[in-house]
Amino acid sequence: MIRSTNIPKMTKIEIEKFRSHMRDVMTGNVSEKEAERIAKNQKSIETTYKEFIKANGGKNPILGF
């Protein structure tokens, strides 16, 4: 069963802004400052993932392998 959430619905303008931003990020059409922030965030995610896998004996308990 899918549970309902309290997350408010996005307006059409919010959806268009989100899609536009995602399109810019995916095509690399972002400012240098934004690109640095994205790279820093990606590095942090990779580091956390590696530590998580290392702490669990090289396996990912969330995915079951």
Q: How large is the share of residues in beta strands?
A: under 5%
Q: Return the structural class.
A: mainly alpha
Number of strands: 0
User: What order do the SSEs take from the amino end to the carboxyl end, as H and E?
Assistant: HH
- Main pleated-sheet profile: none
Rg over CA atoms, rounded to whole Å, is 17 Å
> On the 0-100 scale, what is the average pLDDT?
88
From the spread of the alpha carbons, the general shape counts as flat
Question: What this model shows, in words?
Answer:
The chain is mostly helical. It has a domain at 17-55. It contains 2 helices and no strands. The chain is flat and about 45 Å long. The two termini are 26 Å apart.
Describe the SSE topology.
Elements lengths: L11 H16 L4 H24 L10
Features:
65 residues, mainly alpha
Short characterization:
The chain is an all-alpha fold. It has helices at about 10-25, 30-55.
